[in-house]
Amino acid sequence: MEVTISTYEIMKQFPDEKTARIYLEERRWDGHTLCPFCHSDKIQTRPVDGLYRCLTCKDEFTVRTGTIMERSHIPLDKWIFAMYLIVTARKGVSSLQLSKELGITQKSAWFMLQRLREACRSGHEPLEGIVEADECFIGGKESNKHNSKKLKAGRGTVGKTTVLGMRQRKGIVRAMVVTGTDTETIQNKIRENVAPGSTLCTDEHSAYRGMPEFNHLEVSHSAKEFVNGMAHTNGIESVWAVLKRGYYGTYHNFSTKHLNRYIDEFSFRLNEGVCSVPSMDRVRALFHGAVGKTLTYKRLKMV
């Protein structure tokens, strides 16, 4: 199996709606169609391609039902191509670029990307072993803002949103927006996401101290110490490097209220999208995350 697949090859593989639908049905049901409402296997095929009727609950459904693609009028072959772009674009893809690639409006492309980011949201299995934790700050520099938008409250992290990240060595990444870097906030999030008994590697920030359930190792960045034996935070800092390259190079700005979705996208790409994983396996993983999740435009705007 080839590890990578080119844009030309994926467009040949899914030239129309029907081939894309058949592919997604095989990925979702593996030849055994189940009702997404009552999970019955007593299914009747309707005259319209891809439309099914459950003989148990009498509801009709398609492969889109109960997924992020529900009630979308965008053809399924374009959805697959968008999934391909999400998992292969290291720094992400903007709604403007996606609208040009798919021949849809930017508004539709933006909504499509937000739905795909919803599919990127992972589970909550605890990280274990050696786990690195660190925080970063997302937002523009005060000196670069128009005078009317400056907070005039200092420099550094002023006006920026705090993101806490954890990375299991040779494992998965977990990151989220937090309200601050105080001890209670930081420690609560770490306890929610890291299994007791794990080795926690951090910098010298005092908020990480005082958690006896972890074997805590730290490095002193202020003293120019970046590695101390097995203690370092290079792994999680590489996550911030990729996130900020996407911020400055692709998106130029992250909406604060949707920032968690962008973080989920970058985390998914780091967890599932490494180059050693075949491209279509990454697409399948993203579609698997899309099942069981729905997102309406009204709910998205109300967040």
Give a quick rundown of the structure.
The chain is α/β, with parallel strands linked by helices. It has helices at residues 7-13, 17-29, 76-88, 95-102, 106-120, 183-193, 234-251, 259-272, 279-290, 297-302, and strands at residues 43-45, 52-54, 60-61, 130-138, 161-168, 173-178, 199-202, 215-218. Strand 1 and strand 2 (52-54) form a beta hairpin.
User: What is the count of helical runs?
Assistant: 10
Oligomerization? single chain
Count of domains: 2
Strands side by side in the biggest sheet: 6-5-4-7-8
Q: At the fourth CATH level, what is the homologous superfamily of the largest domain?
A: Ribonuclease H-like superfamily/Ribonuclease H
Structural class: alpha/beta
Would you spell out the secondary-structure blueprint of this structure?
Layout: H1 7-13, H2 17-29, E1 43-45, E2 52-54, E3 60-61, H3 76-88, H4 95-102, H5 106-120, E4 130-138, E5 161-168, E6 173-178, H6 183-193, E7 199-202, E8 215-218, H7 234-251, H8 259-272, H9 279-290, H10 297-302
Parallel strand pairs: 4-7, 7-8
Antiparallel strand pairs: 1-2, 2-3, 4-5, 5-6
Helix pairs in contact: 2-3, 3-9, 4-5, 5-8, 5-9
